[in-house]
Amino acid sequence: RNAEPTPDIVLGSIGIRPRHAVFLNRGGEVFLAPCDQEAVEFISVNGERVTEERRLKHFDRVVFGTNAVFLFKHPGHEAEADPGLHEASIDWEFAQKELATQEEQKLDKEKAEEMDSKLKEMEEQLRREKDEKERAMIAQREEFERRIKELENKVQEGEKERFQKEDEELKLERERFEEDFASKERDIKRRRASLDEGGTGTGVGKEKERLYLEHKLAKYLPKITEVNLIAKELKRDVTLCIKLSYEGVDLLTHDHKGAKSMRIQVQVHNRDEGQVYLWGLDKFTNRYYIIKDILERYFDEDVLPPQSKEEDPFWDPPETHVLCQGFMKMMSLSYLLDNPIDILLVGDHGAVGHLSVDLIPTDEAGEMNISETTEISLENPNELLGKRLDFLVVIKEARFQENIFSETFVEYAIVNQDGRLEKFQTGVVSGVNQNPKYKYKRHHTFMSLTDTQINYLVNHNLCFNICGNQIPRRPSKLLDPRDLQRVPEETKRNDPPPRTVANLAQGIAYAQQKGHHALPPQGYSPDMHHAPGQTSKEKDCTLF
């Protein structure tokens, strides 16, 4: 809108340049061309970037910036349209998914090209090594043949016996060399097979996983930064951050099967509600577009839109999850000794407190602590083989460093008499409590101890999970809200600029220059966010 001269079509969106693009009509055919190189990144037709002048066809989907989507209609040229397209099925979501698909294909192509390049480099290196070995072997053979001929000549001179010995030594040396060469060749073939299968033997599998993780983080971190900025603009005390964990790991049951890939989640600290949530990437993507829709309406109306909790994209019902964990050895039971101890509790950010627990060997009724009697003394755990063992698991209380956990309970798992892991848990301590009293006691029994069960007691660490809800922490460092109001000197005007999405984009760019790494993300149009008669919460389930 600030271009000179004023353009015929004025758009306001993230990524729109003052002179962005031009439509050209030549003999009834319409062409679209970017005005400068910086506008290329924010012009697409049918999901493909427009890098140079392009002819438009009927039903082409044109996207400017991040959220301005148009459907091009060319009367009299309807036959040029894709026969599989129908106008009723083409909406904003269709165009955005088309653009996202192209971006995903581009990333996959880049990854494939990078892997192919690494594969070719490795094969070339293996080929060079093999050629060098072959040349060395040929040279060695020639040397052997030369020396053999010399020996034959010397034999003719009467030194046959001595030279036969030298001949045998040369043959042995040649055999050792050929054996070494064959070993090297087998190693090359094994490395090539490992490379072809994508295994981790050459590090290619790990490199592939690292590249995949980097691509995912590069895609979602800018969006998370943008949502944090939007939350401030909407006067919401909400912060999002990345949380990484390995899939398939259960410390409670010591099950590590399938722990092969890194899982990326988004942790939401909603201090307005006093809750912490974990979102998968699909759920975050849904909420991302809803949040941008709210920002657009806020900029259009200059009033925060009223919302119920069910319509609030920053709200979820309270979630119970593992807050922290602690471990204690079960070895004391194998010597019929109790072990009252305060174990360290560790959460996502390190130590968070202690848990008072005890393992007490008892009589069959589970009432008398037999470790307090002087009649029983064990020198070796194997003395318990074939005998009955009764013991109590006692969970007294927890002491947290900060008063940030609520509705907490403790869970643990123990192998039962049949050899299966069985989970147990305490009652829930209601409300926010820095020193919850669990007062839990559970009687467990092994009717006849086996070698496997004794080994379990001697070597196993019992894991205690503290579960419940977490009150969000204050972030250590967030973007300064004033960064969103500062505009570089060259863009200042006498009058303050109106509040628009473009101004927010300037703030993001300025914050990026200051080292906050807030990149301009992909966007969308509020005009096409909801289908007719569809509520915000319904849209949450159908965006992707």
What does this entry look like structurally?
It is a single chain. Helix content is 34%, strand content 24%. With 544 residues, it is an alpha+beta fold. The strands form five sheets. Strands 11, 15, 16, 17 and 19 form a five-stranded antiparallel sheet that branches. The chain has a four-stranded antiparallel sheet with strand order 4-3-6-7, covered by helices on one side.
Features:
8 helices; 544 residues; four-stranded antiparallel β-sheet; five-stranded antiparallel β-sheet; disordered C terminus; alpha+beta
What fraction of the residues are assigned to beta strands by DSSP?
Answer: 15-25%
Shape: flat
Query: Mean pLDDT, rounded to whole units?
Result: 78
- Stretches where pLDDT is under 50 for at least 5 consecutive residues are 198-202, 255-259, 476-544
Number of DSSP E strands: 19
Q: Output the helix-strand order.
A: EEEEEEEHHHEEEHEHEEEEEEEHEHH
Characterize the largest beta sheet: strand count, sense, and whether it forms a barrel.
5 strands, antiparallel
The total count of helices amounts to 8
Q: Name the helicity range.
A: 25-40%
Q: What's the Cα radius of gyration?
A: 35 Å
**Which structural class is indicated by helix and strand composition?**
alpha+beta
